[in-house]
Design a protein that fits this description.
The protein is α+β, with helices and mostly antiparallel strands. About 20% of the residues lie in helices and about 25% in strands. A hairpin with a 4-residue loop joins strand 3 and strand 4 (about 65). Helix 1 (about 15-30) packs parallel to helix 13, helix 4 packs across helix 13 and helix 5 packs across helix 11 (about 450-465). The longest helix has 16 residues, at about 115-130. The chain is globular and about 70 Å long. The protein binds flavin-adenine dinucleotide and iron/sulfur cluster. Flavin-adenine dinucleotide (FAD) binds next to helix 1, strand 6, strand 14, helix 7 and helix 13.
Length: about 600
C-alpha cells in the first residue's frame, strides 16, 4: 500500500455501469473511492421533456450542448453513447439480458475458464441490484413484432423483455423496494415510452438510483463535469490523474487527484481514447499492442417502419397483472410510443435477436436520422442504390422527411447478432489533431447491413401500412449505427492476446484496471449493460478488503478461479432483495435463465 499522502485509494474514471459498480463494491471493502465523471448530474426534474430540447439532450459541451446523449462518427461506425453521472444508464432503454450462447464459447476467451458457470452468480447479483423485471404488459408495437415473428416463421421466439424499471403502481411513489431502506424511493412506471430521453417520473432504475446512490451514501466521492485528460505515474508510487472542466475552451480549471489505483470505466470510446492518448505520450510503456483490437458493434443494425398515421389502438394491456389491478394509465403515450423503451424480442435464428424500441411522445428529433431503407452488399455503391430508391419511391422518401408525431407512428427494430466480427480501433493524426479511426479487424467483416434486419423492417412496414426505414448514415455513406460499441481492451491470458488479464488488471500496469464495455471480449447478441455490470461485480468481488492480502495470482501468472471475497461493510442489509450474496440458485425457464428465489422479484 502506498496510500499515505494520496488524495484517494482508487480513482474511477467514468460513472457508467462499470464505474458505478466499482464505486460501491470498493467502498464496501474499505477503500477511499473518487469517481471523476465528464457528464452532468441529472434528477427527474431537470431532464428534458422531449429530445427536441437539444441543449439538454445532446452531449457536445464545447458547443454548449450539455445533455446526456453523445453522438460520435468514427470513420465507419456511427456510435450512440451516454455521458452523465450514471453514464449510459440515463439515456439507455433499460433492457437487461444475458448474452446469447455463442458469447460463452468465443475462442478469444473460452480457453481461459468455464465463464458461463463462473459468471452465473454475478449475473444474478447484477439483476437484483438493477431491479430487473419482465415487462408486465403488451403494447401496439409488440403486436407488430409478434406479426413479424409469425411472418419470419419464428412465432415461438416472441417474448417480453427484461428491464430495469420499477413497475409497482403506475405513478405512485413507494419506499425503497430493493435495498432494505438504504436506497431511494421509486415511482411506478407510467408507460410513457420516454426512457431514452431520461425518466422524468423516477421509475427507471438508473445507476444514480442504485449502485452509485449507495456508493455515495457509503462515502464515495463523485465529481461531475470533470473530464480526465491525463494519467501519469507518480514519484513514490501511485498515479496522478489530471482532469479539467468538461467542454471548457478557457478557464479549464485543471486539477490533479492522486490515487494508488485507477479504474478506467469511461465506456468503450472514452477508455480507448484515454489509453491510446496515454500510450502515445509514453505514460504506459508496457501497454499491450492489443489495444483497439476486437472492437465490436455488437454486430448491430437499427432499422424500422413508420406508419402514415398514428394507430387507433393506443393503449397498452396488462399481460399479467401484478396486484395493481391496473389497465391503462393516465401518463401512457399514444400509438407506437406507448410502453417502456423496449418491450419485446424475437430471434429469427440462434445468432440474431430483434427488439422493438420506441421514443416517447413528442421526442421526434431522432426521426431526422431515419430515411428510406436501402439494402447493402453487391457491387452497386450504397449511395447510388439510395438515389435509385428515391427515384423509384419519391413519395415514400418525402414521407420519411416528415417527423411530425414520428415516435407515435414508428416501430424501431434493434437487431443484434453474436457473430465473431470486429473492427480494430487505431489513433491517427488528422487535420484537427489526433482522432480515433478504425480498420478491418479479426474475423468476418463488420456488417454494414443485415439482410434479416431489412426483411423484418419490410414486414413491419407492411403490417402497419407504412414505409421501411433505416439510418441516413447507412443509406448515404454505408456506415452502420450502434448504441452498443464494445471491446477494444479484450481479456487475454498474456499482453499479446489481451489488454487486461482475467481479473481486469491492465497487463504490464497492474495498478490500472478496465471495467466497462471495452472489456467485453465477444459479441453478445444482446444489449451489453447487464454483462458490464456482472463483469464488474466479479472483478470487484475478487479484490481484497483494504489492507488485506491480495489472493489474486501475481500479474502474468496463469489464471486461477477464485472465490469471491465478502466486503467488510456491505451497504445493503442481508434481508433486502438486493443483498450481496453469491449463492443464488437458478432454473431454466423457456430457454432463458432466471433467478428462482422469490425475494429476487420484489415487484411480484
Ligand atoms: C440510446 C441508447 C440506448 C441504450 N439502451 C440500452 C439497453 O436498453 N440495454 C443495454 O444493455 N444497453 C443499452 N445501451 C448501451 C449502454 O448504455 C452502454 O452499453 C453502457 O452504458 C456502457 O457502460 P460502460 O460502463 O461501458 O460506460 P458508460 O455507461 O458509457 O459510462 C461511461 C462514462 O464515462 C464518462 N467519461 C468518458 N470519458 C471520460 C473522461 N475522459 N473523463 C471522465 N469521464 C469520462 C462518460 O461521460 C460516461 O458517463 C444504450 C445506449 C444508448 C446510447
Ligand atoms: S416508460 Fe416513462 S415512466 Fe416508465 S421508465 Fe420509461 S420514462 Fe420512466
Amino acid at each position: 500500500m502506498v496510500s499515505a499522502g494520496l488524495d484517494t485509494d482508487v480513482a474511477v474514471i467514468g460513472s457508467g455501469f462499470g464505474g458505478s459498480v466499482t464505486a460501491l463494491r470498493l467502498t464496501e471493502k474499505g477503500y477511499r473511492v473518487t469517481v471523476l465523471e465528464a457528464g452532468c448530474r441529472w434528477d427527474p426534474g431537470s431532464l428534458p421533456a422531449t429530445n427536441w430540447n437539444l441543449r439538454r439532450y445532446l452531449w457536445a459541451p464545447r458547443l454548449g450542448l450539455r445533455g446526456f446523449q453523445r453522438l460520435t462518427l468514427v470513420k465507419n461506425i456511427f456510435v450512440l453513447s451516454g455521458a452523465a453521472v450514471g453514464g449510459g444508464s440515463i439515456v439507455y432503454a433499460n433492457t437487461l439480458y444475458e448474452p446469447l450462447d455463442a458469447y460463452w464459447s468465443d475462442p478469444h476467451w473460452a480457453h481461459l475458464s468455464d465463464w458461463r458457470s463462473e459468471y452465473t452468480t454475478y449475473y444474478d447479483q447484477a439483476k437484483r441490484m438493477l431491479g430487473v423485471a419482465e415487462v408486465p404488459f403488451t403494447t401496439p408495437s409488440d403486436d407488430v413484432l409478434r406479426g413479424v415473428a409469425d411472418d419470419l416463421g419464428v412465432p415461438e421466439t416472441f417474448h417480453p423483455t427484461d428491464v430495469g424499471v420499477w413497475f409497482g403502481q403506475p405513478g405512485v411513489r413507494t419506499g425503497d423496494p430493493y435495498f432494505g431502506g438504504r436506497g431511494p424511493d421509486r415511482v411506478g412506471c407510467i408507460r410513457c415510452g420516454g426512457c431514452m430521453t431520461g425518466c422524468r417520473f423516477d421509475a427507471k432504475n438508473t445507476l444514480d438510483r442504485n449502485y452509485l446512490f449507495l456508493a455515495e451514501q457509503a462515502g464515495a466521492e463523485v465529481a461531475a463535469e470533470r473530464t480526465v485528460v491525463d494519467v501519469l505515474p507518480r514519484c513514490g508510487g501511485g498515479w496522478r490523474i489530471v482532469h479539467e472542466r468538461s467542454g471548457a475552451w478557457i478557464r479549464r480549471d485543471r486539477r490533479e487527484t492522486s490515487a494508488e489505483q485507477v479504474v478506467f470505466a469511461a465506456g468503450t470510446l472514452g477508455t480507448q481514447k484515454l489509453l491510446f492518448t496515454l500510450r502515445d505520450r509514453g505514460r504506459l510503456p508496457r501497454l499491450s499492442p492489443a489495444l483497439g483490437s476486437l472492437t465490436r458493434t455488437n454486430s448491430e443494425a437499427i432499422v424500422g417502419a413508420t406508419a402514415r398515421r398514428v394507430p387507433d389502438t393506443s393503449t397498452v394491456e396488462d399481460a399479467a397483472p401484478r396486484g395493481s389491478g391496473h389497465t391503462g394509465t393516465t401518463g401512457e403515450a399514444r400509438g407506437y410510443a406507448a410502453g417502456v423503451a423496449i418491450t419485446s424480442s424475437i430471434h429469427p435464428d440462434e445468432h440474431t435477436h430483434i427488439e422493438v424500441v420506441r421514443y416517447g411522445e413528442g421526442s421526434n428529433a431522432m426521426g431526422l436520422l431515419a430515411t428510406s431503407m436501402v439494402d447493402g452488399g453487391g457491387r452497386i455503391p450504397r449511395a447510388l442504390r439510395f438515389a435509385i430508391t428515391i427515384l423509384r419511391r419519391p413519395v415514400a422518401f418525402l414521407r420519411s422527411l416528415q417527423v411530425r408525431r414520428w415516435s407515435e407512428r414508428s416501430v424501431i427494430l434493434l437487431v443484434m447478432q453474436s457473430f465473431d466480427n470486429s473492427l480494430r480501433m487505431i489513433r491517427k493524426r488528422g487535420l484537427f489533431g489526433h482522432r480515433l479511426t478504425t480498420r478491418p479487424g479479426h474475423g468476418e467483416q463488420n456488417p454494414r447491413w443485415i439482410p434479416v434486419a431489412n426483411q423484418a423492417a419490410r414486414v413491419a412496414a407492411r403490417r402497419i401500412d407504412g414505409d421501411a426505414v433505416g439510418s441516413v448514415f447507412e443509406a448515404t455513406i454505408n456506415v452502420p449505427t450502434t448504441a452498443h460499441l464494445i471491446g477494444g481492451c479484450p481479456i487475454g491470458g498474456s499482453p499479446e492476446s489481451g489488454v487486461i488479464d482475467p481479473y481486469h488488471r491492465v497487463h504490464g500496469h497492474p495498478n490500472l484496471h478496465v471495467c466497462d464495455g471495452s472489456a467485453i471480449t465477444a459479441n453478445l447478441g444482446v444489449n451489453p449493460a447487464l454483462t458490464i455490470t456482472a463483469m464488474t461485480e466479479r472483478a470487484m468481488a475478487l479484490w481484497p478488503n483494504r489492507g488485506d492480502e491480495d489472493p489474486r495470482p501475481a500479474p502474468g501468472s496463469l489464471y486461477r478461479r477464485l472465490d469471491p471475497i465478502a466486503p467488510r461493510a456491505p451497504v445493503v442489509p442481508s434481508h433486502a432483495p438486493a443483498a450481496l450474496r453469491w449463492d443464488a440458485c437458478r432454473t431454466e425457464a423457456a430457454g432463458r435463465t432466471r433467478t428462482s428465489n422469490p425475494s429476487d422479484d420484489p415487484q411480484g
